[in-house]
Design a protein that fits this description.
29% helix, 14 helices, single chain, 22 strands, 9-stranded mixed beta sheet, alpha/beta, FAD/NAD(P)-binding domain, 5-stranded parallel beta sheet, 19% strand, globular
Length: 508
């Protein structure tokens, strides 16, 4: 990792550069080190590890997957305090992982990647950051699926004189007490922070485009005795994780057969009716699509908060923002001091795609044309030696995404080891293999609640295709990703001679 000077440009060289230090970046770095890789640099645009769990500090922020499953399999934590972990604990967990596995010396903080270019002649990536240029043979893009907030453009927004922020950039000093607040959006973040600020505010105006399905949050503390038992018996904790995993995988049967979602839908309706007595409000809060078509949210206090007299749900939409008010599409003027966006993240767009230039000189965004595609959700034809973690079709609607991240990391490891063993300069999936994976995934999506549930969710891209979710069981993806098929990859030897058959073999 020595700086070099080439044509007046100073750069830092590493065999492998990992971009991002959330769950995916940490998992990749740890496993690469465990497999003997030492020449690794991690680039992080902020001042600490943690990704989405570092950035999202809004009141009530917590995970909606059980703690024992929402953690790295090789780094169990016996000391989770609750069934569903709060943000601060997950953030601390990731910090502890970075220290425990000696990653800090590999991380370059405050290094934001601005652009990446594939240098085909050299078989390397040129990575430009705000603090200098890096050259790497292999890049692992652990950018994060929830790293860039999605903020709608509202007419007149620039004129508003009050506070404006997205839930992902919640100001530490913000005090909601006595304020008149407009909340735009009713997604996963909004249903967590709304109950936290509702008792403090004077008025809360919730602008809802589409109501979510909300089911009870079966949360509770994990006693110190239980934590001690997990600490003394790792096998006990492993079995608890396996139990949660099996329960969540079983739910996929209903997601794949939408008519079986009726029971869960009844539970959600009962949950709402128990807290919301006003028939007009119930009507506003009742979705007109099958449960599961959009992300199912979990909360015990959202409906009780939304039913309070200082809260109003507006479904007419925002027409314009003035200096001190929001005007809805009916012309009603609503005086507010603060506007909070709970509008989620740019998921299907993959914001990094516009800055990654492949062999042909065009970007991933141009290659994808509104519909992201990758082999195993991890590698992309025309973009050699690039591994995307949480790439296309690796999101989940029923269980922990950490399972998918680890499966992708293992696929990446097998590919990198094969490159080293066979003296390969480059490797990438063939277009045929990539197309076949996409075709098989689309077939798997047919008839599921995500495409047949009667909604237009963020799982679907601008072409209407599911390019976000893996629509099958996670164990089936893990089985696929665990194999390197000889026919699916093409590469080039280090001497420069093209090799259409890189000698990849199925491995277990």
């Amino acid at each position: 990792m020595d700086p070099k000077d080439s044509q007046s440009e100073v750069y830092t060289r590493a065999r492998i550069v990992i971009i991002g230090t959330g769950f995916a970046g940490i998992a990749a770095a740890v496993r690469l080190k465990q497999e003997g890789e030492r020449d690794i640099i991690l680039l992080e645009r902020k001042g600490d590890v943690g990704g989405v769990w570092r950035d999202n500090r809004y009141p009530g922020c917590a995970c909606d997957v059980e703690s024992h499953l929402y953690s790295l399999s090789f780094a169990p934590n016996p000391h989770w305090s609750r069934v569903f972990s709060p943000q601060a604990e997950i953030y601390k967990y990731l910090q502890d992982c970075a220290e425990k596995f000696d990653l800090m010396k590999h991380i370059r903080f405050q290094h934001e990647v601005i652009r990446m270019d594939w240098l085909d002649k050299d078989g390397e990536w040129k990575i430009q950051t705000n603090q200098g240029t890096f050259i790497a043979q292999i890049v692992v893009g652990a950018f994060g699926a929830l790293s860039n907030p999605s903020i709608p453009k509202l007419k007149g927004m620039e004129n508003f004189k009050g506070e404006v922020f997205h839930s992902a950039t919640w100001p530490e000093e913000f005090n909601p007490k006595g304020k008149r607040i407009a909340v735009v959006g009713t997604g996963a973040s909004a249903i967590q922070f709304i109950p936290e600020i509702q008792p403090e505010v004077e008025t809360l105006h919730v602008f809802q485009r589409t109501p979510p399905w909300v089911v009870p949050r079966l949360d509770g503390p994990i006693s110190e005795d239980q934590q001690l038992a997990y600490s003394r018996s790792p096998l006990r904790q492993k079995m608890e994780r396996l139990k949660i995993y099996a329960q969540r995988e079983a739910r996929l049967i209903a997601f794949r057969n939408p008519k079986w979602m009726k029971t869960m839908q009844s539970i959600a309706l009962h949950h709402m009716h128990k807290a919301v007595k006003d028939p007009d409000l119930r009507e506003k809060l009742t979705p007109n699509y099958r449960i599961g078509c959009k992300r199912i949210l979990i909360s015990n206090n959202y409906y009780p908060a939304i039913a309070q007299p200082n809260v109003g749900v507006n479904t007419s939409g925002i027409e314009e923002v003035t200096e001190e008010a929001v005007i809805d599409s009916t012309g009603r003027k609503i005086q507010v001091d603060t506007i909070i966006f709970g509008t989620g993240f740019q998921v299907t767009e993959f914001p990094f795609a516009k800055d990654v230039y492949g062999r042909e000189g065009h970007t991933l965004k141009e290659e994808w044309r509104g519909s992201p595609k990758a082999y195993m959700g991890t590698t992309v034809a025309g973009f050699p030696n690039l591994f995307l973690l949480q790439g296309p079709n690796t999101g989940l609607g029923h269980t922990s995404v950490i399972i998918m991240i680890e499966a992708q990391v293992e696929h990446m490891l097998k590919t990198v080891k094969h490159m080293r063993k066979n003296n390969l300069k480059t490797i990438e999936p063939s277009e045929d293999a990539q197309d076949r994976f996409i075709h098989d995934t689309e077939k798997l999506t047919e008839g599921t609640v995500w495409t047949a549930g009667g909604c237009n969710s963020w799982y679907l891209d601008e072409t209407g295709r599911n390019s976000t979710l893996w629509p099958g069981y996670t164990f089936s993806f893990r089985r696929k990703a665990a194999k390197l098929k000889r026919k699916d990859y093409v590469g080039r030897w280090k001497k420069g001679a093209p090799a259409t058959n890189t000698g990849l073999v199925s491995t277990k």
